[in-house]
Known about the structure:
The complex is a heterodimer of chains A (330) and B (256). Chain A is of the alpha/beta class. Chain A is 28% helix and 26% strand. Chain B has a single domain, classed as 3-Layer(aba) Sandwich (Rossmann fold). Chain B has helices at residues 37-53, 68-76, 94-112, 133-141, 194-202, 242-251, and strands at 3-7, 9-12, 32-35, 57-63, 81-86, 118-122, 145-154, 158-165, 168-175, 178-182, 205-207, 217-223, 233-236. The longest helix of chain B has 19 residues, at 94-112. Chains A and B meet through α4, β7, β8, β9 and β12 of A and α3, α4, β7, β8 and β9 of B.
Amino acid sequence: MSALLVVLEHDRGKWSEANDEALTAARQLVADMADGAELHAVLIGDGALDLAGQAGAGGAAVVHVANDAMLTDFGPEACGETVVQLAVAESVAAVMAVGTSRGNEVLAQVAARMDLPFVANCMTIAPGAGSWSMTRVQWGGSLLEDATLDSGDGPKLVTYGHHAVVAAPAAAPGAGEVREFAPTLDASLARTIVKDRDVQTAGVTLSTAPVVVSGGRGVGSAEGFAQLEELASLLGGRVGCSRAVTNLGWRNHTDQVGQTGTRIAPEIYIATGISGAIQHWVGAMASKRILAINTDAEANMVAKADYAVIADLHKVVPAITAEIKRRKGL
Amino acid sequence: MNILVCVKRVPAPGAKINVTDDGQSVDAAHLGFTTSPHEECALEEAVQIAERDGGEVTVLTLGPVEAEEQLRYAASVGAHKIILVPTDGSAWDPQRTAVALTQAIETAEAANGSAFELILFGNESADSGGFQVGVRVAHKLGRPIVNAIKGIVPGDGSVTANREIDGGFEVYEVPTPAVLGVKEGINLPRYPTMKGRLASKKAVLETAEIDAAAGGQTLVKLHRPPEQASNTEILGTDESAASAIVDILEEIGVLA
């Protein structure tokens, strides 16, 4: 029986939210593959064993738990090599992940090691008897590409774009049979295992904040962001900005919302003085609601927003802050 | 430290991207071109390291002959050598691109008589975003690679590289020669000076001969995602809209 191998992520034993998307996509993909393919999952390294039950609950018939003394933490080369050896040992028909930073990197490692094609960031995948067809994203999602994937006799290697699939619980759990796997890792692969961590922000980050208040060139200066800071902190949110703002040196790049910055998904995104270039839009488009505040009624951000105020952000933002304080009795 | 930076010429889009009638490429008739943003930062990082510690920066691109523009720009901001791997202008798949770049790198290293101690790629290109060319090239060269790097400190026989994770960094110590996939934010790229612009005109453009067959990923057609109907609700045209805004914040439960 053929198998689809889905590569799951964890961070030192902490289940990644992207795994729920990965398993949702994998259940659909395996149903679309011919001859009743079986859904296998792999979890790698220290802390993986404790998560095997979650993978089974998400629909995996078999959960491979790969371990080796080297796999103390994430390492792209060692993880990639582990997946290659497992894929070969199980003769899988396809290997899939979600296109997070790690997901795309591990699949690229698998592809390089097997010298096989790899299609990253698919929105939809149609498996076929020979080649597969898919629609994938270009330009961070503002353009779509229909593509075909021909892997000869080798497994198909694909990732789904992060947030391309809405995670849903499995209708029925998989058998979740746990199988331990011991890869043979060359000592040299230790060269790209994480050595240390430097945690700078505890608590809410831009990518997890329920509210993001962003400013663009229209804010006018680094000092102008003080108004946005006050509003964001009242709402338990974070301040973001456009690429123009980081290029001007007004804010640190860690605050940048966009294709080359952070992808956000808040309950509401308040975009002030931002025109809404493609680069910015693709970082903001997963927001549940968008409020644009801009003097330019024709701005792209205004056209794409759910709500807009056509006025000077320097007057509107303090007015929102004052109104919140009034209602909270502050 | 001698550093190679691989860059890609991409259209500079504004608010909208159009596709050519045959669906094979972006309609660039009204767009300028630029260096893909992550790679512009990779180049700046290489130039800063060379200015501080010595060594040469070489910039390599695979693309149409017009990509000379991006190589000259690289020279104007501090690259010492520029190499073009010319294509017919069509989009090459990632496997083919990686084979061609590897050949060009091996040729350049043979001519130099030594390996580049550091090769920098952008984490992914702004346009096709395949997330793999750097990894493939590193593997073919038998060198380590880590992606999503936003900090590089060269050491003796190794580089310390910081990878961005939510709220902080993972730290890697990678032996050289090494390859890194760099992300925007590692620095703020400089603008060319007048002196740099003049010097870039005199930079010698080298051309690499390569032979690479198509891989297994084939572009069928580009198209724009369906336009979402625009039904923006205008809440007001002055600060009196604040009340309606706070009503919405209350309704969606973010005011607690």
